[in-house]
Every structure is written in C-alpha cells, then in structure tokens.
C-alpha cells in the first residue's frame, strides 16, 4: 500500500483528518471498528460462481466500498493498512468450523490477522460476516484463556501443542469458530504470506472439497456501532437477524424481494433481486 492508497482508505472510512495514526492499541481498535462498520461482508458472488476476485490493493479500494467482500478481501486490505502504519502484523490461515469438529484433509478457507504490540498479541478478523468480533481480541498465545471484549462478546482461545481453536460464547455455551496451526519451532501461530494467501483464495474458488461459503449458504452482513446485521440464505430460505450485545433483537423470515431490498437499505449493497438457487 502506498501513501495515495492509504489516503484513499482513510477517506473511505471517513477518518478525521486531524487525528494522527501510529502503531498503538488505540489506533488498532479505532481502525478495526471503522473498517467493520464501513465495509460489508458478502459471499453471494462466490456462491453464484462469479470469477475470482482481484486482491490487489487498488482493486480492493474500488470494490469493497461498492460491493462488499469475503474474508480474503477484508483481511488483505486491513493487513495492508496496518502494515503501512507500522504495526507488526501477520497473516494466519484458518479452518472455519462453526460448531463442527476439524477433520484431517479439510481445506483451509479463511485468513485472520494477528497484530503484536509490545509483548501483546491481538487477533483481528474483519471478514467473518456477522461472526466477526466487534473489536480486536487481546489473547494469551501460551495457554488457554477466556476474554470478554465488550458486553455480550466473550471468547475462549484453546491452546494445544499443534493448534489453536477460537470459541465464541453463544447464549450459554461456546461455539467453536475456527482452528489455526501452532508452529512447533516458534510456539506461536503458524504465519502465512501474500503468495500463499493468493493461492488459498484461488482454492476457495476453484479447489476440491466442501467449502460452505461457496457450496452451501450466502451471508451478507454489516456491523453498526451497537449491533450486527446478518442476512442469510440457506436451503432455499431467506432470513434476517439483528444482534445487539450478543442477543438477537430482531429475527424474521423474508422472501427474495424483501431480502435484497433490505440488503440495499441496511448494508448499502445493490444486487439483482433474483431467486438464489439452492445447491
């Protein structure tokens, strides 16, 4: 990311011109919140079989504000921004599980960001639809720990010899969100690079195996200052849920026309309102 692209990003999130940015905790939290409340998540294009997205910074700055995007689009743009500011930041590939157990041979299908500030590690995941944490999560990477980041948002990082698993408190029990590898040589998360991220994104579009965001369901989501908006299509049914402080405040079934009309009104995304084909 160059200076012109960085300025464009700050313009898109409506960053205060007089507020300087530096690689510290306050800046990290501020930018993360601005990102997840500005840029919607959507995997509709992936589900419909549209061409693989361009993950160049120039393309992301053009497409995310207008069309939203999936995890690789969000994480690559945020990674570039944080790196430009001077943060120590790493990509980490993950398996999204959402309540399922990991099985050998499952394809990696997600990227998260780990940021180190001094001796502390913060997990940032702007691209997991309504399941994206509302704020960065400060974690102990050495032993299993529970963290509350805000009212209604509690997480547990399960630390094993060869992997980590992140759990999210849903109602009265933890939901297993995803797993990522732990390096035997560093004792920390196994990191990824730009080249392997591009290959991973390509595999999500073209690779074998079952990938839910490509082969099962559609999610369109956006966070606001006090809630998470979650549009969902699965098995021929359309729905909307709005969560506040971890509690569903609005749940309703929709038809196709209502679904896309509300997506336009609440997420500022416009799609052709045609029936989504069940896979």
Explain this structure.
This protein is about 30% helix and about 30% strand. It is built from 8 helices and 13 strands. The protein is globular, with a radius of gyration of 18 Å. The N and C termini lie far apart (about 40 Å).
Give the low-confidence spans.
none
Straight-line distance between termini: 38 Å
Count the E strands.
13
Helix amount: 25-40%
Beta-strand content estimate: 25-35%
Which structural class should the secondary elements be placed in? alpha+beta
Radius of gyration: 18 Å
What is the averaged pLDDT score? 96
Overall shape: globular
Describe the structure using short key phrases.
279 residues; 5-stranded antiparallel beta sheet; 8 helices; globular; 30% helix; 31% strand; single chain; alpha+beta; 8-stranded antiparallel beta sheet
Question: Topology of this protein?
Answer:
Layout lengths: L2 H10 L12 H14 L2 E2 L1 H4 L9 H11 L3 H15 L2 E9 L13 E8 L2 E5 L12 E3 L5 E6 L2 E7 L3 E8 L2 E9 L12 H13 L5 H4 L1 E7 L4 E7 L2 E8 L2 E8 L1 H12 L12
Antiparallel strand pairs: 1-10, 2-3, 2-9, 3-4, 4-5, 6-7, 7-8, 8-9, 10-11, 11-12, 12-13
How would you summarize what this structure contains?
The protein has 279 residues and is α+β, with helices and mostly antiparallel strands.
């Amino acid at each position: 990311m160059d200076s012109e692209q960085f300025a464009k990003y700050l313009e898109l999130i409506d960053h205060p011109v007089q507020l300087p940015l530096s690689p510290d905790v306050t800046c990290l939290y501020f930018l993360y919140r601005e990102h997840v409340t500005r840029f919607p998540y959507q995997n509709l294009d992936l589900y419909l079989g549209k061409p693989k997205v361009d993950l160049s910074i120039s393309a992301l700055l053009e497409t995310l504000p207008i069309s939203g995007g999936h995890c690789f689009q969000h994480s690559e743009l945020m990674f570039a921004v944080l790196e430009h500011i001077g943060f120590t930041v790493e990509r980490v590939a993950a398996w999204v599980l959402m309540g399922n157990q990991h099985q050998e041979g499952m394809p990696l299908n997600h990227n998260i960001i780990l940021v180190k500030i001094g001796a502390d590690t913060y997990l940032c995941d702007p691209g997991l639809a309504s399941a994206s944490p509302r704020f960065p999560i400060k974690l102990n990477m050495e032993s299993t720990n529970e963290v509350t980041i805000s009212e209604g948002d509690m997480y547990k990082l399960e630390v094993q010899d060869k992997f980590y698993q992140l759990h999210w408190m849903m109602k009265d029990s933890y939901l297993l969100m995803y797993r990522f590898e732990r390096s035997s040589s560093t004792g920390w998360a196994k990191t990824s690079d730009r080249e392997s991220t591009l290959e991973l994104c390509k595999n999500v579009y073209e690779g074998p195996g079952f990938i839910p965001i490509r082969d099962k369901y559609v999610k369109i989501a956006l966070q606001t200052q006090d809630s998470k908006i979650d549009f969902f299509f699965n098995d021929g049914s359309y729905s909307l849920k709005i969560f506040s402080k971890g509690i569903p405040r609005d749940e309703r079934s929709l038809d196709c026309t209502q679904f896309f009309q509300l997506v336009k009104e609440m997420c500022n995304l416009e799609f052709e309102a045609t029936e989504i084909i069940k896979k």
